[in-house]
Amino acid sequence: MGDTWGDSRVTVATERKFETIIGLEVHAQLLTRSKMYCSCSAEYANAAPNTHVCPVCLGLPGALPVINRAAIESCIRTGLALNCEIPAFCKLDRKNYVYPDLPKGYQISQYDLPLCISGKLTFESGGREVDAGITRVHIEEDTGRLVHRTAADGSEISLVDLNRSGVPLMEIVGEPDLRSPEEARDYLIALRQLLRAIGASTGNMEEGAFRCDANVSVRSTDGEVIGAKVEIKNMNSFRAVERALKFEVERQTGLFARGESTIQETRGWVDQRGVTVAQRTKEQAHDYRYFPEPDLPPLKVAAAEVTQLRQALPELPRQRRDRYMRVYELARSDATLLGGENALASYFEAALGDDESAARARITANWIVNDLIGLQGERGLAADEMPLPPAHLHALIDAIRNGELSQRAAKELLPQLAPGEAPMDGARRLNLVALDDEDAIRSAVAITFASFPEAVADYRGGKKAAIGRLIGETIKQTSGRANPDAVRRLVQEALEAE
Ligand code: ZN
Ligand code: MN
């Protein structure tokens, strides 16, 4: 697969058909308490600037790094979840470049001997399963952050905050196996889900914990034209990735259609304008003057430890999806959705409680997928917060099953429940408890018969289907509270009475 990329400049004017070649590089922050090579807190979002720093992450001369074991383990777990091989030996290397957010003037990363190699991510896209190769997963460290401000005198200044400097980062390099912008988006969604499921990263894109660069080129299906690889940066959401890649594929095929060619370069996505713009011609590996990190020993990874980490992996989203389909007979789409996120999966399983039957599971899944997730979004709740506790969803479903609440009343009740209020308490407060008082239903039937005499006449004249209308109208008379079975029986009784 290594020769998929072409870097030659080719100029051909033609009516050829082109296909798209995409490979993604993802940087994900690892969820650890301390930084990669020092004991500073890795938490930087809410800290005052330059308070989580020490000589190591400030890059002061003479300060020596120490490897964070938890970060290495988390990176190996990621590799295992991505079906990678974990070589017995790896080392750290210096990647040298100059930028104000990089105080040492180099990043401690990995070059030719990464922690994890040769993996694969299987994901769903466009209704089918796609396998995408994972070239490598390696460990590195994050940079500081630049904050751009306008000073009191009106001049533009840049401030440096080094709280993020040295935060553990892993780079997940994918093979150029993706064939469309949609596939690239679905790959990212699946990868993020996997990292969250094993607790390796928050995967939060807005906060910069999950960042993606894309390499994209086009080539003619007859193999005559191989476009140069273009790297796209600065895409800050799944949507931005998809839009940027769509734009880029059109730009590149447009160039070839006009008899021009593409060049190997780095381009930046400008979200507001919906375009990519040339930034620089792409640097080669030798521009970084990689060499082995002299202050850290190489790492020997014991097979026994890898085995232990593998055995300790939790159930992964796809395994959970399969279990939900097998054990609970959930529809594939529901199983994918509920199995994808730990928070959603635990809520679903907790709401089942002591009833693990497929019938209960399907009803519970329906409530979560059709009602709760929407309500969660409307209320701006976090991914791990639901509008009601799982035990209350269980109680709500119990109430429907034993006839205390009609389906319709339950739907009406749900958004009106006060925080922590038990469903039946809410139903009583809102007068939604099912009506099974026969006298009350009989008087509702009488009102319906008086209001729709033609339906009554139709039924008695032989159009038996008219009963449906009478049942529906009677339930409406009771604001949906009447038990449909009781209504059917009493309407029938009244129709046959004369
Ligand atoms: Zn530090
Ligand atoms: Mn990197």
Explain this structure.
- There is one protein chain.
- With 498 residues, this protein is α+β, with helices and mostly antiparallel strands.
- Strands 5-6-9-1-10-11-12-13 form an eight-stranded mixed β-sheet. Strands 4-3-14 form a three-stranded antiparallel β-sheet, with no helix packed on it. A two-stranded antiparallel ribbon has the order 2-15.
- The mean pLDDT is 92.
- The protein has helices at 55-58, 69-81, 181-197, 238-257, 303-311, 317-327, 332-340, 342-352, 358-378, 390-401, 407-413, 423-429, 438-451, 453-460, 466-477, 484-496, and strands spanning 18-29, 89-90, 93-96, 106-109, 116-125, 128-141, 145-150, 156-161, 168-174, 210-220, 230-235, 265-270, 275-281, 291-292, 299-300.
- α7 crosses α8 (342-352), α13 (438-451) crosses α15 (466-477) and α14 (453-460) packs antiparallel against α15 (466-477).
- It has 16 helices and 15 strands.
- β11, α4 and β12 form a beta-alpha-beta unit.
- It is elongated.
- The structure holds zinc ion and manganese (II) ion.
Q: Report the portion of residues in β strands.
A: 15-25%
Number of separate helices: 16
Uncertain ranges: none
Radius of gyration: 30 Å
Relative helix content: 25-40%
Q: Terminal Cα separation, in Å?
A: 82 Å
- Mean pLDDT across all residues, rounded? 92
Q: Bound small molecules, which ones?
A: zinc ion, manganese (II) ion
Task: Kindly state the number of beta strands.
Answer: 15
Give the strand line-up of the largest sheet.
5-6-9-1-10-11-12-13
Shape: elongated
User: How can the largest sheet be summarized?
Assistant: 8 strands, mixed
Class inferred from helices and paired strands: alpha+beta
